[in-house]
Amino acid sequence: MKTTQKNFQIVDLSNVEGDIKGGVVSFLVAVPLCLGIALASGAPLFSGIIAGIVGGLVVGLFSRSALSISGPEAGLIVVVLAAIESLGSFPAFLLATFLAGVLQIGLGYMRAGIVSNFFPSSVIKGMLAGIGVILIIKQIPHLVGYDTDSAEEISLFQPDGFNIVSQFQAAIGQLNGVAFLIAVVSLAILLLWERPFFKENKILKNVPAALVVVVSGIAINGLIGIFQSDWALQGNHLVQLPVPDSPAAFVDLFTMPDFEQWTNPQVYTAAISIALVASLEALLSIEATDELDPLKRKTSTNAELKAQGIGNMVSGLIGGIPLTSVIVRSSVSINAGARTKLAALVHGTLLLVCVIALPTVLNRIPWAALASILLITGYKLTRVRIFKQLFEEGIAKFLPFVVTVVAILMTDLLTGIGIGMLVALFFILRENYLNAHKMETFQDNGQEHIRISLGDYVSFLSKASMVKVLMNVPENAIVEIDSSNSSYIDSDVMNTIQNFKETAHKRNIRLIFLREPADYKPVPESVIAMRNRHLREIEEMN
Description:
Blueprint (H helix, E strand, L loop, with lengths): L15 H25 L4 H18 L7 E2 L5 H11 L2 H20 L11 H23 L20 H10 L3 H16 L3 H5 L8 H19 L19 H6 L12 H28 L8 H18 L5 E2 L1 H9 L6 H16 L1 H4 L4 H15 L2 H9 L2 H16 L2 H23 L1 E8 L2 E8 L2 E2 L4 H9 L6 E5 L5 E2 L1 H14 L5 E5 L10 H17 L1
Parallel strand pairs: 4-6, 5-7, 6-8
Antiparallel strand pairs: 1-2, 3-4
Helix pairs in contact: 1-2, 1-13, 1-14, 2-12, 2-14, 3-4, 3-11, 4-11, 4-12, 5-6, 5-11, 5-16, 5-18, 5-19, 7-9, 7-16, 9-16, 11-12, 11-13, 13-16, 17-18, 18-19, 20-21
Membrane topology: Multi-pass membrane protein
Keywords: Membrane, Transmembrane, Transmembrane helix
Protein name: SulP family inorganic anion transporter
């Protein structure tokens, strides 16, 4: 059972080390991804870093999620790119981002976060597994030194037609031995750190494996550069963070929104698009993060929408691209041991400190090392045992899960989730159809008795099955209709029963309505009145 927000806390003193490790690891992953998403969105590179800082510090401060980490996310790339192109200027786009934040706060107060309650767990797990598969596939080129696709893409088929097959072909043709060596060493470190010797060692268990990977990657590349400078990784094989040469140059990296564009209708169109996509992705990510939470806490989705809105307002005001809750960074943090929002605050603080004080150090990190971290994260999101577990739960759980995974791989994140939801909805309707009533047949003194027990919630979807059951009642039978457990009966079903009652005597069928108090199931007080009203209607029919 998930704990309530009464148990929410910013810091758990018993897990400070785990939270710090989670913040450090997510920070290491976030730096290149912030830059890559900004690049793919057609925005200034530093705007991605700004969004990452705001996501960690501002959203981290206001969010009620213990483990979610926010920042720029790949699902927003298309929306941001289209908005910048339609508005014609980045400052105008920043105004749209600011207004999108205002809309998100409004959605939070309107309690729109309830939408997340309608996503089945099989679809959420499918989203996680789909992202995991894509993380694995998308990191493979980086492991061999092909680093032109630096964005955190969540689609195997990109708009320019350069798909994953083309990417693998290009990667094989540009195999880089140094990058491959760093990747092999990095993966070995990550796997060894999961072994009991490292996890139980008093010193090593407190050292984040990702930090060791990054340091090792920098060291290997540096040593190779000393002995053979031509072999060392350079350029887009490394993180590329803007390096200001003066305080004034650093300030120039920030951009203010163009408030004179507030009369431009396209600004509001862009704001609505950003708000809707960012909100939906945040809700999905929050649900997925809660699924990964070892403590099974439940986040207030309405409070999260408000926190995301505040974050986008601040990001838009100081020159950042839109942000949302990001499952990849959140899962990396959780896997590293994070248990409270201290990890998000550490993540944002490190981003801020390092872009100010250590940009040249960050620019020495090889992509191959970071890709290794993401590959292991992807594996943990899509382990075989997850597929096996859902398969054992039955086709109603397994098929929506698999369809969601495949649809995400073939299209994009939101489209894949939508397709998965349609499949899940089919099984929900099917379950409703099959379980709306139960029929028992027995003999009493040579006469056939048929008892039809109605379910708790009998919707219009049950009309067809009810018609079929009543049409097949043989002549001279006694039919008992038991609605004592029903909290709601749709009027279409009521009319079907009424029509059967009016014609039953023609076939010498005796109709009996049962309403035994002992058969009542406990129901919420809010539905008692509705149930009693329907019971009175059935009584009147009799």
